[in-house]
């Protein structure tokens, strides 16, 4: 790893012309690439990019060759499931399958690297292409077809891309700012494209093999989602154990395509769902229930994968039971709701009425409350006949109203309790700020916005009439007296 | 005759239903299946039986059977259909401005009228009254004439 350290140093010191010492390994190349994203572009170019071999080593590796050979042999031999012993792990075919899974993950990583390589090399020629065609294999194919051609309309891209994309590509190509590439760069690019396509076909072979053996490896999982999808899931996850460890929400998203092309509508893109979309169950559910079905499938297939990873049920019956359960649930969702029966009337007076309360209700009730004048009129003093409207005991009686001793003939409206509270708060807010020490100018007169200035404290009156405990039979202000009436 | 409502033909059945409905108004219609007014009333009863099911039970009594003649005599049923209300085995009377308070003679104009009457009876009974006043306006109450014989 000395070269790795050296190359890091080289980045830091910006001694960028160290091309000689840079036959670094794969991981170093990846790490450097990630670092250089915000580093100098000069550094990027001087690092190993001229040589594809130093970036992508997988195809030349021994491991790759071995496994591919074995896979092809096994594919030719056909499926041979008769002799798996009790301990599956000892079976050489199982080992091969495990290796295949790891290999398929490696191939995918490799493809990403090669794609980046092609993209970077092709950028001077046609920079917009990378944002139009996202998929690495499609990109490689398109690059291969276009080559060094300046006029893209002459190139036939039918079958490689959907026609809408072809149209966009041709339009962009006509206004592109790219220039044709030098010959050696072009050669490298073509080589890289070939490499990418070869890797892709290798991956397909590996997947086919895994799929054919899927019933043997993971019978429960393939009972639910089918062997194709099961193989894909396992390949993407990196093995049955890895798949079993994933939570169901991740399994749902395995294989989901990432972004939509800019400019195309996102209305058709469903919520993220991956390989699970290709299962037979998902395809046959009505579109309204597709999301729920997808989630359900992912959940059950995760459980099945867990069963399979521990070889809990080699016969695949658990998977079949899950499949049945899924089918039943989806059917139940599609049932119409039960018919609404008219409810019988509730028993009268069984539910107590909800009485409201609060300030609003109190204020409303105040409008109909008994006024002080009426209160006075209802009461009578002991021993004094009350005056009446028609005189002589006829008509309405006036009670204490206007009697000597009650204070006055005209009864002023005492403050209602609510207004009293408000006045108190108002007073506190304005005058309470003086604190403990009161200045000599404060008075105990009550200034209220309701009545203006009154020399007598109106709160005293309200008190007097409101409370029933204080009796007004015996006047507070006057004494026993006899007044002659004329 | 409605098929949704139980028809009672024997005295024993009438007894048992009166005794067994607890805390619910029992509505007994005395009448014949062949009479047109009876059919009207039966229709209204059948349709509202489910709505009042939480506080009332509805049953039909056939006055043509011999067994129930005792009741016909006791309640003095001369005009059909006659509806008699019970609550917890007490006979409930209702003052609807007519001559006879102990029963309701005739059909109801609408389902809601019947529900209102039953509710009034229920409320009165829950308060402990034995006679309640009718909540319907006089134009919705069927009028009839009683002829007194030898009185």
Automatic annotation (TrEMBL), chain A:
Keywords: mRNA processing, mRNA splicing, Nucleus, Ribonucleoprotein, RNA-binding, Spliceosome. Pfam families: Nop, Prp31_C. GO terms for molecular function: RNA binding. It is found in: Nucleus. Residues 353-362 have a biased composition (Basic residues). Gene3D superfamilies: 1.10.287.4070, Nop domain (1.10.246.90). Residues 335-349 have a biased composition (Pro residues). InterPro entries: Nop_C, Nop_dom, Nop_dom_sf, NOSIC, Prp31, Prp31_C. The keyword RNA-binding applies. Residues 330-362 are annotated as: Disordered. Its main location: nucleus. One of its GO terms (cellular component) is precatalytic spliceosome. GO terms for biological process: spliceosomal tri-snRNP complex assembly. Residues 217-335 form the Nop domain. Belongs to the PRP31 family. This is Nop domain-containing protein. It comes from Rubus argutus.
UniProtKB/TrEMBL annotation, chain B:
One of its GO terms (biological process) is mRNA splicing, via spliceosome. Keywords: Cell cycle, mRNA processing, mRNA splicing, Nucleus. GO terms for cellular component: spliceosomal complex; U4/U6 x U5 tri-snRNP complex; U5 snRNP. It is found in: Nucleus. Belongs to the DIM1 family. Essential role in pre-mRNA splicing. Required in cell cycle progression for S/G(2) transition. Homodimer. Interacts with the U5-102 kDa protein subunit of the spliceosome. This is Thioredoxin-like protein 4B.
């Amino acid at each position: 790893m000395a070269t790795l350290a050296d190359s890091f140093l080289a980045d830091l010191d910006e001694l960028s012309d160290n091309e000689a010492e840079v036959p670094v390994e794969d991981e170093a190349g990846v790490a450097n690439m990630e670092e250089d994203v915000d580093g100098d572009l000069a550094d990027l170019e001087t690092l190993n990019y001229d040589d594809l071999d130093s970036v992508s080593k997988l195809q030349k590796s021994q491991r790759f060759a071995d496994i591919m050979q074995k896979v092809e042999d096994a594919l030719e031999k056909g499926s041979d499931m008769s002799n798996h012993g009790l301990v599956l792990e000892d079976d050489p075919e199982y080992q091969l399958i495990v290796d295949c899974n790891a290999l398929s993950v490696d191939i995918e990583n490799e493809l990403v690297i090669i794609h980046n390589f092609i993209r970077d090399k092709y950028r001077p020629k046609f920079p917009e292409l990378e944002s139009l065609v996202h998929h690495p294999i499609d990109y490689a194919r398109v690059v291969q077809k276009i080559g060094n051609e300046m006029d893209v309309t002459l190139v036939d891209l039918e079958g490689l891309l959907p026609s809408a994309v072809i149209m966009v590509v041709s339009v962009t190509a006509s206004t592109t700012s790219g220039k044709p590439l030098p010959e050696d760069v072009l050669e490298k690019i073509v080589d890289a494209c070939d490499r990418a396509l070869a890797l892709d076909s290798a991956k397909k072979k590996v997947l086919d093999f895994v799929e054919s053996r899927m019933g043997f490896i993971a019978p429960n999982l393939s009972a639910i989602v089918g062997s194709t999808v099961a193989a894909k899931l396992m390949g993407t996850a990196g093995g049955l154990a890895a798949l079993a460890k994933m939570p169901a929400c991740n399994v749902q998203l395995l294989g989901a395509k990432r972004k939509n092309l800019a400019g195309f509508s996102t209305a058709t893109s469903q919520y993220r769902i991956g390989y699970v979309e290709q299962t037979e169950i998902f395809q046959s559910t009505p579109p309204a229930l597709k999301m729920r079905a997808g989630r359900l499938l992912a959940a059950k297939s995760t459980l099945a994968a867990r069963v399979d990873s521990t070889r809990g049920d080699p016969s695949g019956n658990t998977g079949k039971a899950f499949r049945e359960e899924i089918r039943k649930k989806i059917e139940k969702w599609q049932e119409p709701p039960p018919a609404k029966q008219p409810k019988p009337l509730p028993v009268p007076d069984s539910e107590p009425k909800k009485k409201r309360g609060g300030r609003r209700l109190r204020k409303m009730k105040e409008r109909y409350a008994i006024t002080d004048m009426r209160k006075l009129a209802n009461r009578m003093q002991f021993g004094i006949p009350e005056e009446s409207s028609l005189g002589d005991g006829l008509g309405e009686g006036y009670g204490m109203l206007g009697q000597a001793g009650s204070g006055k003939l005209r009864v002023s409206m005492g403050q209602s309790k609510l207004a009293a509270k408000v006045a108190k708060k108002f007073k506190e807010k304005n005058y309470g700020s003086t604190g403990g020490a009161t200045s000599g100018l404060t008075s105990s007169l009550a200034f209220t916005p309701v009545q203006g200035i009154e020399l007598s404290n109106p709160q005293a009156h309200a008190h007097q009439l409101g409370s029933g405990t204080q009796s007004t039979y015996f006047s507070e202000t006057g004494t026993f007296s006899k007044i002659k009436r004329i | 005759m409605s098929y949704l409502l139980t028809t009672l033909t024997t005295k024993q059945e009438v007894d048992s239903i009166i005794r067994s409905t607890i805390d619910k108004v029992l509505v007994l219609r005395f009448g014949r299946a062949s009479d047109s007014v009876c059919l009207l009333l039966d229709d209204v009863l059948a349709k509202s039986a489910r709505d009042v099911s939480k506080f009332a039970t509805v049953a039909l009594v056939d006055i043509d059977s011999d067994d129930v003649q005792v009741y016909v005599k006791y309640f003095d049923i001369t005009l059909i259909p006659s509806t008699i209300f019970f609550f917890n085995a007490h006979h409930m009377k209702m003052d609807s401005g007519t001559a006879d308070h102990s029963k309701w003679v005739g059909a109801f104009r609408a389902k809601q009228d019947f529900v209102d009457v039953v509710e009034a009876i229920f409320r009165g009974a829950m308060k402990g009254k034995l006679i309640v006043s009718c909540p319907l306006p006089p134009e919705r109450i069927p009028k009839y004439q009683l002829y007194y014989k030898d009185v």
